[in-house]
Automatic annotation (TrEMBL):
Catalyzes an amino-pyrimidine hydrolysis reaction at the C5' of the pyrimidine moiety of thiamine compounds, a reaction that is part of a thiamine salvage pathway. GO terms for cellular component: cytosol. It is an enzyme of class 3 (hydrolase). This is Aminopyrimidine aminohydrolase. GO terms for molecular function: thiaminase activity. It catalyses: thiamine + H2O = 5-(2-hydroxyethyl)-4-methylthiazole + 4-amino-5-hydroxymethyl-2-methylpyrimidine + H(+); 4-amino-5-aminomethyl-2-methylpyrimidine + H2O = 4-amino-5-hydroxymethyl-2-methylpyrimidine + NH4(+). Pathway: Cofactor biosynthesis; thiamine diphosphate biosynthesis. Homotetramer. GO terms for biological process: thiamine biosynthetic process; thiamine diphosphate biosynthetic process. It comes from Secundilactobacillus folii.
Amino acid sequence: MTIFTDHIHQAAEPLWQQSFDHPFIHEIQSGQLPTDIFRYYLIQDRYYLSEFGKLHELIAEQVDDAHGKQFLLAGAQGLKDGEIAVRKGFFEQLKITPEEVKQTPIAPTAYNYVNHMYAELYRGNPQQAIAGLLPCYWLYNQIGQHLIAKGSPDELYQRWIETYDSDDYTDSVDQMIVLTNQAADQADDDVRTKMKTAFLRSSAYELAFWQMAMDKQNWRVSA
Ligand SMILES: Cc1ncc(C[n+]2csc(CCO)c2C)c(N)n1
């Protein structure tokens, strides 16, 4: 029998390929991504990351398996200590202040991506929500592994690439894959189909997130 995550990964392949080929990723690698686009991405991603951490805690509350619960809670803590902390260095270098973050409205795609993950949990179930978290871990790891071979001539972009190629990070991706397969094992066919949809939609939002940054997407109206 095909492993569930292999099946959904294969279904998402055309979307992932478009992320690998996206100008945002190419320009990170070449060092030509304009700093204002990267700054915009980091500010939008700051919002995404804090909601992503909260989602780990909310999903953990609904997971029975002690090991899975503990992994999700550790993930939430890891986001506070790790991913978000790493970003602090970027923020200081690019002079992004907490005030600027607070003043910047969340853009439509970031808003929709986060709301999609909440909907998977609250209008669906924890299994769907776990599948919705997985592309975030897994896609960035694959991007990190693609880009690390060549690296980027830009020191800041090189550091961004390295974040997603570390052994610790790759380890957490493997654990998230195991958790998703465990959730699928406990699910019936209907929930498994919904898990696949959640995974594909998150993959589509990951792709849209790069374009959101390139377009400096906004609501076309001041809040
Ligand atoms: C839109 C968006 N998608 C994925 C990531 C990457 N990421 C965010 S949290 C996390 C798990 C552990 O740190 C990973 C890999 C990102 N930064 N922004």
